[in-house]
Automatic annotation (TrEMBL), chain A:
Residues 15-204 form the ABC transmembrane type-1 domain. It is found in: Cell membrane. GO terms for molecular function: transmembrane transporter activity. InterPro entries: AA_ABC_transptr_permease_3TM (IPR010065), ArtM/GltK/GlnP/TcyL/YhdX-like (IPR043429), MetI-like (IPR000515), MetI-like_sf (IPR035906). The chain crosses the membrane at residues 15-37, 49-73, 85-104, 146-165, 185-207. NCBIfam families: HEQRo_perm_3TM. Keywords: Amino-acid transport, Cell membrane, Membrane, Transmembrane, Transmembrane helix, Transport. It comes from the Bacteria. The keyword Nucleus does not apply. One of its GO terms (cellular component) is ATP-binding cassette (ABC) transporter complex. It is a multi-pass membrane protein. Pfam families: BPD_transp_1 (PF00528). It comes from Streptomyces sp. gb1(2016). This is Amino acid ABC transporter permease.
Automatic annotation (TrEMBL), chain B:
PANTHER family: AMINO ACID IMPORT ATP-BINDING PROTEIN (PTHR43166), GLUTAMATE_ASPARTATE IMPORT ATP-BINDING PROTEIN GLTL (PTHR43166:SF9). It is found in: Cell membrane. It catalyses: a polar amino acid(out) + ATP + H2O = a polar amino acid(in) + ADP + phosphate + H(+). The keyword ATP-binding applies. SMART domains: AAA (SM00382). Keywords: Amino-acid transport, ATP-binding, Cell membrane, Membrane, Nucleotide-binding, Transport. It comes from Streptomyces sp. gb1(2016). Its EC number is 7.4.2.1. This is ABC-type polar-amino-acid transporter.
Amino acid sequence: MNVLLDNFPEYRDGFIGTVSITAISSVIALVLGVAIAGFRVSPVPPLRYFGTAWVTLLRNTPLTLLFLIFFFVVPEILFPGMSPFLLGSLALGFYTSSFVCEAVRSGINTVPLGQAEAARSIGMTFAQTLRIVVLPQATRSVIPPLSSIFIALTKNSAIAGAFSVTELFGWQKLMSDRGYEIMPVFIWVALGYLVVTFAISGLFRLLERRMEVAR
Amino acid sequence: MSGVSVTKAAEDAAPAGDDLVVLSNVNKHFGALHVLQDIDLTIARGEVVVVIGPSGSGKSTLCRTINRLETVDSGAIAIDGKPLPQEGKELARLRADVGMVFQSFNLFAHKTVLENVMLGQVKVRGTDKKAAEEKARKLLDRVGVGVQADKYPAQLSGGQQQRVAIARALAMDPKVMLFDEPTSALDPEMINEVLEVMQQLAREGMTMVVVTHEMGFARSAANRVVFMADGKIVEEATPDQFFSNPRSDRAKDFLSKILHH
């Protein structure tokens, strides 16, 4: 008990850090993931190639390596002086966007082809067809895998701790440096993550139920 | 066959003489299958052309090439004098002028019946919502499903869904309507309600291309029957000529199989 109460401000900061990085990179992953999924089913070949390259590259790179690139290469050539928090969010968001893209694409494939044909036959462009007809119907089947992807993202955010981003997992290192017994520390860290991941799965369960009614 | 027989618009709806849809020397392959072979077909404004033929003869594919849901390997297709453009905004604009009714209805499952008929008007034509709704309700009344306006497609019978699909296509004020086996997925008792809507459209002078197995409809509503087999147009004739005195052996064989039992 002591370890938590005596070091509560640091624990709280870590928890808030984890929630923030999770929230920011989730938004990045969702926006990019949906856009790239659109690219991957686009009739324009260069967009399709770009989408495929994006997914292949990011999905197959170890996340730690991606973090290294974002922290040591990206600031050198692109954004000098960007905060570790933002760099971490970008790395995690880009990485997860490849998984979101594939989940969304599998959702798109569950929508019967006739829906898109009907949309095109009344004169909708490809983008309109996707946005107005296909994606809304794909959402329902994408929600369960998305839930898993965002829970994985939450846990992956621990890697950011190694790159001087304040987050929950980093608290554990701080505490062991201060000489606390390791078991209780781990339990408190795990509970902190559980709060976030349970919140995510609860949110998605709610969404799922909402969608059910809409049909 | 359905018992629909309304006095036909045929001869009296004398086509205005100008060509609305022109297919010239169209070829298409599905892998090794040569599904459309040197197709030449001209459809005049106001004309009702019924395409019949055995399964796999390429008649559905032919219908779908007209608004480029299927691309062709060679040959040219023009609508109202304009050749079909490549996929893109221009093609989308042209498709808006070509109504299409599918075998499996393909109503937007996540939209109500009313929204289905409004969507194209609002998103493609840029009509304001109020005018679009008014027109949608008028069209739904016309095809006899006005009271279902606020339901979702899945809550309607097949016949009702197909009539909504016709209303959705009509909402775009199309120059020509394509029907790809519109009654093939329907229970027998629902076929007539759809055919009656189509009959009415034909009488009003809509240019129509209808792929169907409904010989009764072909007899009563068509200006011309196109008989396809094995990817070729084997015979073109008026319905009277075709059904009473087919010239080709292939057509005779086809008719003997479907008309006498």
